[in-house]
């Protein structure tokens, strides 16, 4: 029997779920409900008439692994291959990444020379930590903070400087609170499977999902891509998905349509909207965990207050990031590379600066050289440094960003163009025990036979690739269960 599936949230996770659902003959109707005026969530690009492109969210996607192949396969299916801008591993943006420590920029160690010599800001060669790591015994804990895990296996200096900075760059989060098991599963699995990160990386730590590569994914592997973007910015990906949904026939697409309530009798859902209701047999929620509860009073067949599902959803914290795009006349960088990260010991409010013009010069304006930079601020430290996100002014954030560019990069001229984006609650934080929360939530959904799937960045990974894959997984599990019940 064919069913109606409602997808809540038109970010990249919800769009991915619709894309995969729409391929199934088991699903007769898909309803996509997005409360905002645009689709794509945090994938957001400003395109200027002179050809310049500025990213306010993610700016490059990695092609590596099963989830990376999955995204490239989707890009090919959408016919966007000619739009892809690849950056290879031998590109200067891949080879040169910096840390800002002790008031100066330090190039991250790379290549054999960088590993066997002492490279500031580190006090000893990395090879010493790596060789010792192989001999350190396995941890006994079910979960551990990233800082504790790396300190134990590779030493506190690497944890304090490199890992602290990395977690600020990727999660805008505090490595002393983030879970290694949930945030960096390859490291956790390597230790579990091989007793060592190094051996796990060399020998593999277990199979990943099976995603056969498309022609584009094969090309990425052959050409050794480190990351890629699109000519018109990454917002082009959700735009192409939205267009496919609108022209595909079985997807009903609604924007500016917030869900005001949900009720279920256990077999189907009634979805309350501001101007009516929709019935669905199954819901895939690609909304952030807290949004499901805060904006949607869910009426489950049990008492909600005592419902462990709502409790677990509420425990998934998020952080706010200020993203400031700056454009300078001419070539102003003292170094070339991807950008630099800042450890929390150096400046708690400033996470890092990306030198956008280096990996993606195609996004510069036409007519005369410019330098595009993005300054990222706040994250887990937002409230402490800038105060309440609802009260902070754009001018304060802009001033702080331009000051950082002056002090870190020696740029004394003011920017010729700027834009400030405040991304409230944009990155979920997987704190200790996150894996257990997920297990409990999914167990609850199974035990109560709820026609509900959870997708998006709140659960199984915050990268664009992870979120796209979570949409696919939710759609395919839905289709599979439907096929099995026929």
UniProtKB/TrEMBL annotation:
Pathway: Porphyrin-containing compound metabolism; protoporphyrin-IX biosynthesis; protoporphyrin-IX from protoporphyrinogen-IX: step 1/1. The gene is PPOX. Residues 12-477 form the Amine oxidase domain. The keyword Membrane applies. Belongs to the protoporphyrinogen/coproporphyrinogen oxidase family. Protoporphyrinogen oxidase subfamily. This is Protoporphyrinogen oxidase. One of its GO terms (molecular function) is oxygen-dependent protoporphyrinogen oxidase activity. It is a peripheral membrane protein. It is found in: Mitochondrion inner membrane. Gene3D superfamilies: FAD/NAD(P)-binding domain. It catalyses: protoporphyrinogen IX + 3 O2 = protoporphyrin IX + 3 H2O2. Monomer. Homodimer. Its cofactor is FAD. Catalyzes the 6-electron oxidation of protoporphyrinogen-IX to form protoporphyrin-IX. Its EC number is 1.3.3.4. InterPro entries: Amino_oxidase, FAD/NAD-bd_sf, Protoporphyrinogen_oxidase, Zeta_carotene_desat/Oxidored. It holds the Pfam family Amino_oxidase. One of its GO terms (biological process) is heme B biosynthetic process. It comes from the Eukaryota.
């Amino acid at each position: 029997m064919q069913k109606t599936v409602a997808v809540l949230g038109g970010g990249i996770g919800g769009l991915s779920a619709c894309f995969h659902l729409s391929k199934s003959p088991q699903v007769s109707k898909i309803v996509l409900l997005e409360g905002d005026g645009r689709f794509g969530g945090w994938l957001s690009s400003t395109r200027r008439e002179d050809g310049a492109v500025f990213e306010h969210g993610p700016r490059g996607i990695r092609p590596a692994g099963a989830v990376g192949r999955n995204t490239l396969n989707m890009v090919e299916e959408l016919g966007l291959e000619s739009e892809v801008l690849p950056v290879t591993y031998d590109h200067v943006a891949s080879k040169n990444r910096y840390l800002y420590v002790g008031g100066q920029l330090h190039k991250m160690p790379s290549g054999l020379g960088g590993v066997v010599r002492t490279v500031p800001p580190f006090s000893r060669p990395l090879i010493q930590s790596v060789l010792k790591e192989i001999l350190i015994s396995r941890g006994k804990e079910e979960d551990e903070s990233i800082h504790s895990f790396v300190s134990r296996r590779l030493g506190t200096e690497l944890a304090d400087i490199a890992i602290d900075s990395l977690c600020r760059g990727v999660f805008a989060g505090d490595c002393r609170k983030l879970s290694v098991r949930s945030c960096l599963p390859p490291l956790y699995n390597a230790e579990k499977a091989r007793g060592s990160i190094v051996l796990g990386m060399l020998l593999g730590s277990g199979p990943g999902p099976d995603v056969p590569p498309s022609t584009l994914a094969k090309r990425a592997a052959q050409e050794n891509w480190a990351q890629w973007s699109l000519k018109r910015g990454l917002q082009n990906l959700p735009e192409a998905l939205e267009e496919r949904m609108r022209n595909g026939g079985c997807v009903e697409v609604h924007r500016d349509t917030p869900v005001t309530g949900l009720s279920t009798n256990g077999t189907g859902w009634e979805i309350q909207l501001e101007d009516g209701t929709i019935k669905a047999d199954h819901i895939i929620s690609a909304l952030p965990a807290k949004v499901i509860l805060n904006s949607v009073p869910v009426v489950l067949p049990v008492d909600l207050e005592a419902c462990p599902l709502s409790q677990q959803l509420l425990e998934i914290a998020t952080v706010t990031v200020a993203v400031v795009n700056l454009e300078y006349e001419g070539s102003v960088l003292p170094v070339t590379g991807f950008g630099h990260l800042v450890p929390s010991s150096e400046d708690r409010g400033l996470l890092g600066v990306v030198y956008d013009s280096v990996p993606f010069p195609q996004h510069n304006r036409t007519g005369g050289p410019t330098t595009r930079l993005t300054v990222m601020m706040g994250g887990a430290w937002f409230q402490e440094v800038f105060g309440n996100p609802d009260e902070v002014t754009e001018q304060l954030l802009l001033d702080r960003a331009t000051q950082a560019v002056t002090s870190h990069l020696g740029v004394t001229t003011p920017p010729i163009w700027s834009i400030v984006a405040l991304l409230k609650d944009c990155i979920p934080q997987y704190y200790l025990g996150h894996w257990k929360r997920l297990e409990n939530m999914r167990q609850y959904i199974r035990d109560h036979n709820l026609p509900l799937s959870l997708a998006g960045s709140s659960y199984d990974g915050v990268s664009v690739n992870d979120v796209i894959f979570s949409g696919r997984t939710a759609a395919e599990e839905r289709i599979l269960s439907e096929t099995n019940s026929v």
